[in-house]
DUF2007 domain-containing protein (Frankia casuarinae), 128 residues
Amino acid sequence: MPATAGALLLEPLIALLAVGLLMAIGRWAHAPARPRPAGSVPGHDFGLLVPVATVDTPAEITRLRAALWARGIRSTWATAPAGPIRIDAAGNIIARPRDRRHVLVFGTDANRAARALVNLLGSRQSPT
């Protein structure tokens, strides 16, 4: 029995609709339903870790991590995203953002770590 033109177009159309429906369901099912933890940086997901301070040098990272370790708080660090390089109309670089680093701790330790770092950082840098 020969297939008509309508039947030849109907089967691929049904297949495309089924794939589109599966993609929509998958996107809905894997959308984040949990709220972001306090102190989290928008656009930069550190998983279970949250930043408690942002500093400029590796020496400051070492000092802060040692202070946290002395209080029984595990920590690590991650590079903070630098802002855009500003360029004037002639193509000259006006400002280049410096590299900074986040001190990261588990979300359950964030409040305790922030309190511990306030004394170390003083007025120079407040915990994030």
Summary: The chain has three helices and five strands. The longest strand covers residues 49-55.
